[in-house]
Structures are given as C-alpha cells and as structure tokens.
C-alpha cells in the first residue's frame, strides 16, 4: 500500500487536447504563432474550475433572495 504515483503527475489539463492551440493529449500547450511550449495550459483547456454551469442543478443560494 505504498504505491506512489509516477514522478511528475501529469497535469489534469493534459488529459485532453487543447481546443485553443490544438496541443495533443499529453503535450503541453504551445504558442500557436511560434510553437513555443507554455508553462501553463490555456484556459480553454483547463476543466471548469469552480464556476458551475447555470443549469439550475447547483445548490441554491440560501439567503440570496431579496
Ligand atoms: Zn493550448
């Protein structure tokens, strides 16, 4: 039970291809104009952080009513 993840856990964003710069899965984002790798993935590639979609399924805001 002491298994550890491989060194360098892959960034979660790299599990999908980037829709912005078209970086393939497993590859870091790059600058589309010159192909330079970026230290951080494009926002379009990162999974939605904490902003829930407005589907109405999110817990209601109690006390937000006027
Ligand atoms: Zn990208």
Walk me through the topology.
Elements (H helix, E strand, L loop, with lengths): L66
Bound molecules: zinc ion.
Zinc ion binds next to loops.
Task: Write a structural description.
With 66 residues, the protein is largely without helices or strands. It contains no helices and no strands. It binds zinc ion (ZN). Zinc ion binds next to loops. The site of zinc ion has 8 residues, from loops.
Strand content: under 5%
Low-confidence stretches: none
- Average pLDDT confidence is 78
Distance between the termini: 53 Å
What Rg, in angstroms, do the CA atoms define? 18 Å
User: Helical proportion?
Assistant: under 10%
Major sheet: none
Total of helices? 0
**What structural category arises from helix and sheet content?**
little secondary structure
Assembly category = single chain
Q: How many beta strands in the DSSP annotation?
A: 0
Q: Which ligands does the model contain, each kind named once? A: zinc ion
Bulk shape: flat
